Amino acid sequence: MRAAEVIGECHGNWLSDALQEYGGISLRQYLRRLFFKSHLKRYSKSRRKAPIYWPLTVPSGRWGVWIYALALSRETLYAIASEALRREAYAEAEIARLEHELAAAASGRRPRDLEKALDDERKLAEELRRFRQEAERIAGLGWKPDLNDGLLLCAAPLADLFPLWGEPKKCREEVRAGKHDWAAVAGWRDQL
Hints:
The chain is mainly α and 192 residues long. It is 56% helix and 7% strand. It folds into 2 domains: 1-33, no CATH class; 36-96 and 122-191, no CATH class. The protein has helices at residues 2-11, 14-20, 27-33, 35-42, 74-104, 111-140, 151-155, 167-176, and strands at residues 44-45, 48-49, 53-57, 64-68.
């Protein structure tokens, strides 16, 4: 976001003008809702699907990270898990703050609004915990992405971290079923 602001300062409002084409949404909304769909379309041809930027997110889409698929490694997965843990700790602090605010009932916010915010933050904390555990589990397997497998098979082990794209889940099931025996990822068939 900051990079876009700096570029905007140097080159006018080109980003704002471009986002007006999408109904005046913010850059954050564009990245969350529309970018991957557009990117996947651009990097797909015939049956080949090979997007190079991947959004790994919690199922609700309220938190996630973008990765450059060609640089994916076990270390990347550990770094992603670490970032999820950092956000999980923030969610836990926010839960404690909201619980305190609800108990004090002196914040000026309606109790129903506080309860909803508290419920949302609890759900996010649980999603982050599961996301982090899965990233750590995959990294701990010893699996290393092999670009010779193709990007779709490289994404298969990450299917649970990739709710925006159903293809990796199908590929993971195929690998589990014994298809793609030629691929390096097949060596982890039983652990996926």
